[in-house]
Amino acid sequence: MGLLRTTESVYRETNAKNLWDELSKARLDLVEERRINHSLRKQVNGLLHYINEQNQLNEDLRMRISLNPKTGLPNHTQLDVDLQEYFEQLTHDSKAPSGAVILIKLDENYDIITKTLKPSVSEWVLYQISTRLQELATEMTPLFHTRDDEFILVVPGAGEPEKLQGLLDDICRIISHPHIFSGYHITINCLVGVAFYPMNGSTKSTLLNNADIALNHAKATGKGHVFYTEKMREDVVEKMHIQNSIIRALEEQPLKEIGQQFYINLQPIVTVNALVDGLPEIDRVDAEALIRWKHPENGNISPEDFIPIAEETGLIIIIGKWVLYNATAQIESWQNTHHLDSRLAINVSPRQFKNDELLDSVRRIIGFRNINPECLQVEITENSFLEDPAEAVRKIFKLKDLGISIAIDDFGTGFSSVNYLRKLPVDVVKIDRSFITDIATNTQDRNLVKAMVAMIQELGLSSVVEGVENLDQLKILMDMGLQRFQGYYFSKPLMPADYLSYHRRNCPKPSVIGSEQSQDYQKIPVQV
């Protein structure tokens, strides 16, 4: 019994020790597990925090990518996404209503503001415009700010122009409402182009492109808002065709050979001192060089069609050089071969006038031809000097230093004729034909011409009246004291040989000396 109790006692002690060891180990394991769990919790919390930060960064990035920073409106990126979803919905739902895309572009006043006033003013104006437009937008007609001066409004369910007329009027009205800010009183207008789905396009790119075509048509015609038509696209295609034809005509041959397609006509500018037996007695004949284009496939193309395109694309620089070199070749021919006293005027477009090479080109060609510079006259329009009057005055003085005279063409059609004319060192003012057409029957036109003539004379300048078509117009103009005229009453534009005959026929006095033999004008090759 004693041995049994002893064995039992030992067993109990051993069991207790083992249990204690196990409990101690379990406690240590528990502590370790808690430590690991705590570490895991920290890692999980850190991971969640990182995920939240990344989500916030992604949201910020999405906002920056999809929203315009100046107005907070969805931008072109969001427009692409939303329009794509819209078109997918229309594709899958044949009963979905048609819609319209309204493209809104601020006019040139906004561009002037951004260039002349501090950024805070232009940004404030832009924000005000966006706020006004948002008043017209709804959840169903989202508004997008796609470029600095451009907004787009999507209008589902508007399938006919009549449904949008009121909205378009409201858009133009609220944008043109003056912005008054810290002493500034700013007025900005807009142009609007509209294209309908599916009538004007069944894809996003086509619809936006057609809305842009409509907007450009609004700009060209001076209308506030325009609905797209297929005729507008045809006009754009025709314009591109003319542009490409000009490029081919200019690039496929050297400058001296451009005359294979282009040529110059000369329209007489006559000086009339009196009417004899009711008919004008011509005392002197000068001329204006007018470029013409005979396309090898399409025949004669009007300058009204190709000159604006050449000006827009910059191709007018090359064309202008060709006119300058060939016009001065004509003067050289008059002086050296025909002994003819006649001044020749050439037109210099606004883009050509601003080109830095103009002065050097004129200087070089006068020296190359060895002509009297007084026989050359440069005609510029008011648009040539409105943008930078100081630079225009400097350039005109440089041209006059070469000995040539300067004329202002199409006088009276610009916005600041009187204001700028008194500052410009010009010699001749050409009164635009638009004031002459109805002068015999329209008292207002007659009074306007009288006022212009009085002002021109007061400034000590000479004048030429364009567009004289009949004797009644001539008599009225001569009664105002005018003597120099240009128009179909005297002559249409002539080929150089025909102009030479016209000059000799009307000025048989000292202005024609020597050879009476008519010779065709030969263009002299020039290296540029």
Describe this structure in words.
α4 packs antiparallel against α5 (161-176). The chain has 17 helices and 16 strands. The N and C termini lie far apart (135 Å). The protein has helices spanning 2-66, 76-92, 108-116, 119-136, 161-176, 204-221, 230-251, 303-313, 316-338, 350-354, 358-369, 383-386, 389-401, 417-421, 443-458, 471-479, 496-506, and strands at residues 99-106, 143-147, 150-156, 179-181, 184-186, 190-197, 225-227, 262-276, 279-295, 299-301, 344-347, 376-381, 405-411, 428-431, 462-466, 484-486. Helix content is 52%, strand content 19%. The chain has an 8-stranded mixed barrel with strand order 8-9-11-12-13-14-15-16, surrounded by 5 helices. A hairpin with a 2-residue loop joins β2 (143-147) and β3 (150-156). By secondary structure, the protein is α/β, with parallel strands linked by helices. The model is unreliable at 510-528 (pLDDT under 50). The protein is elongated, with a radius of gyration of 39 Å.
